[in-house]
Amino acid sequence: MQNAFIELPWAVALILLPLAGAMGCFLFPRISRTLGLMTSFSIVVSVVGLGWQLLEHGSYRHAVGGWGAPLGIELVADGLSLLMLTTTAIVGFAISVYSTTYFKPALAVRFWPIWMCLLAALNALFLSADIFNLYVTLELLGLSAVALTALTGSKEALSGAMRYLLATLLASLAYLLGVALLYHSFGSVDIAVLAQQMQAASPYASGAIWAALGLMAAGLMLKSAVFPLHFWLPPAHGSAPAPVSALLSALVVKASFYILLRLWFTLFEPLVNGEAINTLLGLLGCAAILWGSVQALRQTRLKLLIAYSTVAQIGYLFLVFPLAASMGSIAWNGVAYLIISHALAKSAMFLSAGNLLCFGGHDRIADLDRVVQRLPLTAAAFALAGVSIMGLPPSGGFIGKWLLLEAAIIQGRWDLVAVMILGGLLAAAYIFKVIGHTFTQAPVTHEAQSVSASMQWSALLLAIGAMLLGFLSLPVLSLLNISDITATSGVGL
Amino acid sequence: MNPASFYALVGIGLFCLGLFGLIMNSHLLRKILAINIMGSGVFLVLVALAGRAENMPADPVPHAMVITGIVVAISATALALTLMLRVASETGHATLPDEVEK
Amino acid sequence: MNRKILRLILLVPLLLTLATGLGYAVLSLPEQPQYLHKRVIDNMAESGVSHPVTAVLLNFRGYDTLLEMVVLLLALLAVWSLDMPAPQHKTPHKTAPGLILDTLTRLLTPVLILVTAYLLWVGAHAPGGAFQAGSVLAASGVLLLLAGWRVSDKLTALLLRIVLVAGPSVFIIISVFTLLLEGQLLKYPPAQAGLFIVILETVATLSIGATLAALFLGVRPRKIELEKGSEKDSKKDRDKNRQHE
After folding, report:
1. Which residue range(s) make up the domain with A443?
2. pLDDT digits over C88-106, tens only?
3. Looking at the domain assignment, is residue A187 inside a domain?
4. Is residue A174 part of a domain?
5. Assembly ipTM
6. Which of A92, C33, C150, C197 has the fewest CB atoms below 10 angstroms from its CB?
7. Is residue A243 domain-resident?
8. In DSSP terms, which residues pair with A63 in a beta bridge?
9. In this structure, is residue A399 part of a structural domain?
10. Is C27 within 8 Å of B1 when comparing Cβ atoms?
11. How many structural domains is chain A composed of?
12. CA distance C141 to C149
């Protein structure tokens, strides 16, 4: 029985289940809430199955259509993709629970089918090993994200969504041009095949290969909203409905960063190893940390503050480029840990902000009226999430930042250490600013509306999850290092 | 330079022209048109280079990729146009907020 | 005005550099590329069709096609969720179409449907296939919509949604079927590959045509709103949600 459970094709299920769910929610809008919730739960089950499968057999490869690369497309699941899939499943489930009560029926029938498509896009993206397939999943992801951002129909949401759409389309086209150049240089779009060819060709790398690197990196950086290409993020994340902001900050921006990580450390590794371009990316990361944190401090609206905090946290992720020599190094582990903890903590924050919005009808920080007494669960969720964002122990954020600091100190990069510490201090400043206001009474007391239990608990449980990650470093890191045994470069430690 | 490379260069030119139009124009419809031109440029590069070997028939894989790309581009354009119409009806201008023409 | 000129001065040299760099990149590509063409030809006998592009699109890289059909459907979902307030669509038959449009539509629609069927069938061994046929079908749909024709309200709810969803859904059903049968996603049994592809393409053509035509119309059929309570209620909910954000 146990064996049969493991051998089921969980990776394929992860893609087909949300697609089927999307069709179902569209066909039968009356039961879309239940259907969506069930699909989200089935994704959690499938991820558990996949994790078990990977622990037993090592990394997993599935040739779609029976045609292996380079003719067909392959699905690959290794440690990093497993962690991203798990994060998607858990955060996705929490957001689904939250959304069952958050959206009124008119908006809910529109939300669920698109949300299911977005989940399918994320799962397909994390399992793909083919750069053109990644383009299609990126487009599916981008279009669903834009549609969800514009859901409320307010002026800010529509403008934010429009800007987001233009940025994401530009980024996808740059990425696709890179794919075109790579295909015509090497004759394949499969990552493993390309990596092998690149190893052989790298001493005499032609202009086309460098151009492809630049184009794909630029496109993915625009999608990941790293400074200075972050201009679209605050308006979009700040004006979307709360669960949508949560999934955007926690999952969608990480997807393009994941692709950048994969390509940088497997495909382009012979080209970029030790080159100055890593320093440039590190510099952009530092700028993002400082700029994002300072901007967050200046905000008067809670959701915009959280959005700028995302900009800052993405900066931390880009420190992997100067610090990590290969996959499996300390900085690599740190960044993977940061991705997961940020996903949990940031979604918890946005969901708490949604609760506050529902409760008071506004999200002005200065007018957060004694939230600690009136919405204790939400205040606790925000505070715990804040602990992870600040990087205080015990939390997932602390472990991630600690690993990055360790890597920086070992390599003597005191400039990066200074930036990270400064970033932590600034994060503490803006988090405490919000928490401080939740304790105080506002000048004018506002009418309160009740917030449903599922909304409060989903936010709190996500925040608790971010804290729990602080205790689970050993198992999580061992899962991360299930490596792809057929990749030719950057394998293991 | 064989014909295939020439068409590929035209594709690159379209890509850059589209990028120029995307950044310089403030009207949303022109931005959307610019994105479409960029898309056409990328597809042209893909398809032109597929036929660059002289004595062999064209490579079918980029052709299939471009068909996929065209469908994706249609979907994106449809969404962009509808979003633009909504922005225009809500704000009165078919532009992004910080680029309203005086 | 000054800001625009400044942007222009900064942008033009950057773009010229970009264009030169990319142009050089294109010219530096190897002359004799490594083709997948040989592999496609070698495996085409098992793929069920005899045209290389159709084989790649629906068999070798069929997974991409599945995702792209979902993208198309998603675009429609997104456009419908944006809920265009379109007064001109409420009374479609108010103004009769002009004589030329009317006659042309009546003459062309049957021809276009025939061309659709032809393109669908010929895709197995010549350029053609589901997307091409679907686009022609959509074109005839657009022509009809321009001439003022609308689908009757009875049909716009569940039946329309079934037609729209049919393409991706049949693809998903075939995926599950092949997964259970052969253990690998989308692995068609070689003997029935042609049959699977024909079924897939036929349903996909209908879906693609319907989706593109619905995208052109842009307005969600009102009947669907009414299923979830009255239209007045949903408008009130929308306004309330708008106040929240």
Report:
1. 274-493
2. 444 455 567 788 888 999 9
3. no
4. no
5. 0.96
6. C150
7. no
8. A74
9. yes
10. yes
11. 1
12. 9
